Amino acid sequence: MANQTARTRPRRIVIAGASGMIGRALAERLTAGGDEVVRLVRKPARGSGEARWDPAAGILDPAVLSGADAVVGLSGASTGRLPWTRAYKEVVITSRLDATRTLVDAMRAADRAPGVFVSASAVGFYGDRGDEDLAESSAPGSGFLPALCRAWEREAGEASELTRVATVRTGLVVGPGTAMRALHMLARAGLAGPLGSGRQWWPWISLRDEVVAIDHVIGAGDDGLNGPVNLAGPTPATQADVMRTLARLVGRPFGMPVPAFALRLALGDAADAMLLGSQRVIPEKLLADGFRFHDETPESALAAYLDEVG
């Protein structure tokens, strides 16, 4: 792949958020490849593979990050917990900004900066954009998620004076997490139908491509991928496309539509942000850098997910 630095030794990679679905899968991939992974944990550390931190209090020993080949920030309260109350929105915001700020402050205080800082973001940056093709250079949208993502990426960008910074804007990850479990349950119950019109674009990516893409960003080299990087599959799909495919794969009918007003009544503004909004996201930077997706279609990603969960 283009711009990938040659691997001459095991890397030391620090992961914040290693207990989540993406973090666990990433840590497994890296350790399987011979890298040393240090997981940041809130409980007392158990051995050299863990280091304690307290992002809410801004506590992290800078020595943990000093000279690391990469720091990966994946921490943050789930946006999949619905509905969003005003109090929970504040938790979603502060959990991300506090964690990112703590990482950047520790990098700044470290004897040697890490080789790269890869910080999570989300395709929510773009807001509801209809049929517009959304590359990394596209403007932000409006609303809660775009504002959150802008603030999150701005916080991560404070490290750009120290090291290369990449903010990975992720879509629906097709893996054994909360969102896919809910969709899978609906499909098995014969309730996988259009949400609203069903014509809204849902950016998706398989879990295995998600973690390989993050590893690709890590290995891109000093002049490689930086700034925002879209992590979405190369074949755009609508919400109806995704759910129709899932229903077929589990042998159930494609269900009746759920009216948009009912979703808004039940979920408030989260309905538009998470389910009804349209984002036709293009992984322009990854493709230009020579990245090859294992799962190029939603069908491939969903089949792999179903094989994993049984």
TrEMBL record:
In this chain the DUF1731 domain maps to: 258-304
Annotated signal sequence is: none
Domain of life, per the record? Bacteria
- Residue ranges of every copy of the NAD-dependent epimerase/dehydratase domain listed in the record: 13-229
Q: Name one Pfam family in it.
A: Epimerase
Entries under NCBIfam families matching the protein: yfcH
Which PANTHER family does the UniProt entry name for this protein?
EPIMERASE FAMILY PROTEIN SDR39U1, SUGAR NUCLEOTIDE EPIMERASE RELATED
Query: What does the similarity note say?
Result: Belongs to the NAD(P)-dependent epimerase/dehydratase family. SDR39U1 subfamily.
Protein name in UniProt: TIGR01777 family protein
Organism name: Humibacter ginsenosidimutans
